[in-house]
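Reproducibility note. Readers wishing to regenerate the assembly model reported in the main text can use the exact inputs given here. Chain order matters: entities are listed in the order in which they were concatenated for prediction.
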Amino acid sequence: MRVIIIDDEPLARSIIKEYLQSYKIIELVAECNDGFEGMKAIQQHEPDLIFLDIQMPKINGFEMLELIENPPSVIFTTAYDEFAIKAFETDAVDYLLKPFSKERFSKSIEKYTQQTNIKLPDKVLETAAQSPSQQNRVVVKHGNKIKIIPVTQINYLEAADDYVKIITAEGGFLKKRTMSFFEQSLSPYHFVRIHRSFIVNTQLITRIDPYEKDAHVVILNTGAKLSVSKSGYLKLKEALGI
Amino acid sequence: MFPIKLNVVNIKASPKNKLLFAAIISWTIISIIYSVMLTSLLNNFNLPAVQIVLDALINNLLLTGSCLLIFNNMRFYLPRIEKYWYVLTISFALSLICYFIAKGLLLWAFKNDEHYWQLFRQSGGIRFGLIFLLIACMSMMCLLLFTQEEEQSMNERKIDMERLSKEAELFKLRQQLQPHFLFNSLNSISALTGSQPEKARHMIQQLSEFLRGTLRKDDQNWSSLEEEIQYLRLYLEIEKVRFGHRLQTEIIYSDQISQYKLPALLLQPVVENAIKFGLYDTIGEVLITLNATVENDYLKIQLQNPFDPETSQPFQGTGFGLSSIQRRLFLLFARHDLLSTRVSENIFITTILIPQLK
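Running the prediction on these inputs yields the following structure tokens for the assembly.
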């Protein structure tokens, strides 16, 4: 069994390493300092299990998982994070609260060996993404690179089958999420869902024109034109206070 | 008038004395006015002195009784502003009662005196009018007095409550401890106990000392810069055990300003914020610089941490750290301009000004 530890604190990694020593069948294949290293190591080693810290530099543990196609089984390790714990409680996910004992650690390993290949439910990541630290940015994979997009830099979002296309000044990025997820999480940042297929950054709107019967069209300062449905128009009017 | 003057001295001493004094003075004034009016009225009709005195005495006693009744009644039940008609009704009813009792008593006392009977009937309207006027006056005075008193005590309570909540908020702000920091430190200690028990023990001592510092009580609201920096170093030592491989710190200040004062435990959350910001927004080594100087009677503390301008919006998400400092400075100095932040390339600079009390 191959495992990877991803945590930005060396001492936090060392205690897991120490606990792992008594398991002959477990091979520690990599130790990573942050989510970027973690992603690379997971792609390279294809581990069975990872120990993942939540609060890490640049991208947190959840955001790292979002970027991986087929994530391995995960045991989360965290010191204190209200939102993470809320996310874990929505589904039976194994997590260790730091500092944890050897006994508690053994239980987690046992649980894993008894039911291998526990797939992480999408719901966990969606709940975690509602935390204030994650809410104001979106992490996407762009080719081989990871891009962190602050929500203020998003012009609008467009539905694209199972994905949502995030349009910024630098171009479009795909993220596997639902439109209703973004509708909810972006609502504190002046974003309004104006159409089944569009969520717009209202601060960029320069004009709203009527278009055919009951429909409208918004024009952004970038020149983009987006159609507005009847119910979307009502939401937009409310958001802009007109 | 002499005893009244004596009472004046006691007013400030106790609010109850004040009430009593007000009652006595009102009643004295009212009865003097009433007696003088009644006497002069009756004098005009050439009545014997016995009749004048008895008449005045009975009327005065009745009036005193009514006033005491009103006074006591209002002490326990104070009508609202919109219920002033109630006061008038009560006064009217009381006046009627007084008038009829006086009439009954006096007419019974002088039942053989036709001249007095006639005079009483003639003066009935004026008598009743006078009684009503005086009772109504007394009621209004009581009403004003008690309303004012109630308002005053309400104001005092409000001020007390505001002061208490301000103190509680300041205390809470001072004591803010990031649970994340505490649990991660404990986890580091847990890791060290296996491999380096001596180091673990040292860290437990540092953490205890740090926690003791956060529990310092109200009587030490102000610290010297030196004390604060010492406390800060304790915190940084702990953070360096956790992030030693990435975290570097630099504290610059001259000995001349080491005794300048600042609110206790103000710096640590600001530094914590800078460290978190620096460590979680960048990858690689992080240098946190604290620079303390003095500028026109202000102690100026400047903190620098690196950040990534491409991915973060420092002005939007200054997070808990700085907003609580802002709030604390406002509660202490009633000013919003003591905390400022700015960005210079990839360095985030937080500046705090502490007015120096002379």
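We highlight two features of this model. The first strand of chain B starts at residue 222 and ends at 224. Chain B touches chain A at residues 179-180, 182-184, 186-192, 194-195, 241-245, 279-283, 308, 310-313, 316-317 (CB under 8 Å).
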